[in-house]
Design a protein that fits this description.
Heat Shock Protein 90, 7 strands
Length: 225
């Protein structure tokens, strides 16, 4: 496992520099017409999202060092922050994101940065596969925990990926058949970060898509109140 992680880290570091150069080149263009300006904005957006995933990969090696502190985290605030960040991307791709909060427990035991990445990666996948033009994010209580679930309406989730998610972990990035354009990298990152936080990840297969979720323990601080 260590060798696999180290291999991923090497790839991540190799990708980081050219992605940064691509973004800088796009920013360096002079005044452009409307169509070219749209292309530049898309180049910047794609490179920034790729750099975010590369940065997430570099964090995986740091998990073993215990550098990410656990603390009471306002789960709705994390979800609000992610949805605000991705709202333009959803709009540009003619996608609608429906949000529903029903959780009574407001604080979970987590790390803000890692939880933000988990929700971000789940929502990004949902955006790509929201074939009916919509995705759903729900936050609710379940068996003493708080569940964040993201539902898409895309192609069926392969049984193999569903089984890996059911076990609560994906050991390495994998390709996802029937869902082209996805390497499963986001699911791998979400799985590793969730395991570090003592959270559980899983997936639900639907006839018209899939739901991915993370369940987090309620903060002891919240339980005192």
């Amino acid at each position: 496992m260590v060798k696999e992680v180290d291999g991923v880290m090497v790839v991540a570091h190799e990708l980081k520099a050219p992605l940064a150069v691509l973004r800088q080149l796009a920013l360096s263009f002079g005044e452009l017409g409307a169509q070219d300006e749209h292309i530049r904005a898309e180049m910047i957006s794609v490179s920034e999202r790729a750099m975010r995933q590369v940065n997430d990969l570099t964090k995986i090696r740091k998990l073993d060092e215990g550098l990410f502190e656990m603390e009471p985290v306002a789960v709705r605030a994390v979800c609000d922050d992610v949805t605000h960040e991705l709202q333009c991307l959803f709009k540009e791709n003619c996608r609608e994101l429906n949000i529903k909060y029903t959780n009574r427990a407001k604080l979970v035991n987590a790390n803000w940065e890692l939880l933000h990445s988990v929700v971000y990666n789940f929502l990004l996948n949902a955006m790509y596969y929201a074939e009916e033009g919509r995705a759903e994010l729900t936050v609710g209580d379940t068996k003493g925990k708080v569940r964040i679930m993201i539902r898409d309406f895309g192609p069926a989730l392969p049984i193999g990926i569903w089984r890996e998610m059911k076990k609560g972990r994906i050991e390495q990035p994998v390709s996802i058949a029937m869902r082209p354009g996805s390497s499963g990298l986001g699911l791998y990152i979400a799985s590793r970060f969730s395991r570090y936080m003592g959270a559980t990840v899983g997936a639900v297969r639907h006839r018209d898509g899939a739901s991915f979720y993370v369940e987090l323990p309620v903060s002891k601080q919240a339980s005192l109140f």
